[in-house]
Structures are given as structure tokens and as C-alpha cells.
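Backbone-to-sequence.
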């Protein structure tokens, strides 16, 4: 491991945190871990908001300087530390990586995590203490995300946001399947920041027990297995799994898969 002054504030099961940990693992970088519990609401506490005003994880400190947003963090790490590059040198390759990382930030993350994971796995738990759930929603800084969460809490899988998120994920798997028709990795022969960016979301769909959303996308599913076989996956994802959360997600997926399948008309 290369010695660095890196400190990562992260949550074990957070997809964005998985993304950055994958980058750190692939580049063999040493880093100091500061867990931030999303389920415990630590990301909304004043001490963390001083680090990250948007109250999201992860946050990277490099010699005390904060770098925010997982996509930005990964590009920063790859640019600063030359060993084991994950960004192609050619501008065309860089553009292709950024095309995929932009897809994550423009809809895949919110659809997969903020909508589907919440609706399938965590909403039922929060309904047991609806007042506390609504209070937590009120603390979400982004007004759109706040109202979307409120709608899903109220309507569950009948929320329009769920149908839209499922359509987005079907499109994502179709696009990914096509991209993988020419090589083992998204850019062909090079494992890159594009693969790093996307595998946490396929992981979450798998953890939710609704990987049937990817029906017919054999290239994408084979790629997912190759990603899971890399040592970085065990170090950045498997190592940080929470058995209680996994059980909750899998149980929710088993219960709600028939409705998910009906929404998608699979």
C-alpha cells in the first residue's frame, strides 16, 4: 500500500462509498477510515455537515483538504497517484469514462439508491416510526429529494418515482449490455473508472434481490461476476457488508419482486 495522507468518511453499505473504496483498492492506496452511519443519521449531524454541507457520503480529506462527490474524488485520486491508472490517457477514452460516470450522477444513483432501495427495503422499517421518518426527511437539504422521499414513504411501490426508477435501471442495463459486447470491461480491455463507478449499483440491485431487472442482459451479468472476482471487490465491498442490512434488502426484494416485475411487465 502506498503511504498517503488520505482520510475517508464513509458508510459501509453506501454505494458511493463503495465506489471510492474500489478506486482506493485498485490503486493500492493506504487510507484512514472514519465510518459515518447513514442509518444512524450521523451524516446529518452538525459535525459532519461542517465537512460536507450536502450531508452525503463519502468525503475525502487529503492532508486536511476536503474533496467531495464520489465521481470527483475518484478522478482526483487517479490524477494525483500515478500508479495503477484507471483513467485512459487518450482524450477519447477519458470522454467515454465520463459518459458513464455522468450517467451515474444524472439518474442511476438516485433511481437505484434513493428510490428503489428505499422503497423495497427500508420504507417498511421507517413506517414503524413514521414521525421519526418524517423528521429525518425534513432534514434532507435538497428540496426535490426531500419531497420525492416523502412521496415514496407515503405510497411505496405505487409512487410514480418507483416506476420511473425501474425504467431507468432497465435502460441502464440495456446500455451496459451493449457496451460490453466488445470486451470484458466497459472500455474494452481496460478496467477503468467506468467499471468502478457502475459496479456498486449492480451490487445494490443484486443485494435487493431484484436482479431480474437485468433479464436478457447476459453481457452485463457476466461483467458483474468478473468485477466481483477482482480482489478490490472483496476489499472495498464485501469486507464492509452489514448482515442486518443485507437480510433486510433481500427480504424486501423477495416480497416485492412480483410487483416490481409487474411494473416492468417482464
Amino acid at each position: 500500500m502506498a503511504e498517503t495522507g488520505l482520510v475517508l468518511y464513509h458508510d459501509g453499505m453506501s454505494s458511493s462509498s463503495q465506489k471510492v473504496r474500489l478506486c482506493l483498492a485498485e490503486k493500492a492506496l493506504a487510507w484512514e477510515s472514519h465510518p459515518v452511519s447513514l442509518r444512524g443519521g450521523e451524516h446529518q449531524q452538525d459535525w459532519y455537515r461542517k465537512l460536507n454541507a450536502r450531508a452525503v457520503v463519502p468525503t475525502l480529506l487529503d492532508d486536511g483538504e476536503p474533496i467531495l462527490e464520489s465521481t470527483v474524488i475518484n478522478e482526483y485520486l487517479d490524477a494525483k497517484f500515478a500508479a495503477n491508472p484507471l483513467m485512459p490517457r487518450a482524450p477519447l477514452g477519458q470522454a467515454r469514462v465520463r459518459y458513464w460516470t455522468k450517467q451515474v450522477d444524472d439518474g442511476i444513483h438516485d433511481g437505484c439508491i434513493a428510490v428503489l432501495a428505499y422503497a423495497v427495503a427500508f420504507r417498511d422499517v421507517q413506517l414503524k416510526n413514521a414521525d421519526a421518518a418524517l423528521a429525518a426527511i425534513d432534514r434532507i437539504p435538497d428540496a426535490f429529494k426531500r419531497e420525492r422521499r416523502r412521496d415514496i414513504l407515503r405510497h411505496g411501490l405505487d409512487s410514480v418515482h418507483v416506476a420511473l426508477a425501474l425504467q431507468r435501471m432497465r435502460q441502464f442495463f440495456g446500455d451496459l449490455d451493449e457496451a460490453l459486447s466488445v470486451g470484458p470491461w466497459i472500455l474494452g480491455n481496460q478496467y477503468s473508472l467506468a467499471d468502478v463507478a457502475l459496479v456498486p449499483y449492480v451490487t445494490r440491485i443484486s443485494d435487493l434481490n431484484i436482479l431480474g431487472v437485468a433479464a436478457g442482459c447476459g453481457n452485463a451479468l457476466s461483467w458483474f461476476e468478473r468485477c466481483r472476482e477482482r480482489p478490490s471487490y472483496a476489499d472495498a465491498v464485501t469486507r464492509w457488508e452489514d448482515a442486518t442490512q443485507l437480510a433486510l434488502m433481500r427480504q424486501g426484494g423477495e416480497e416485492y419482486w412480483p410487483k416490481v416485475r409487474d411494473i416492468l411487465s417482464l
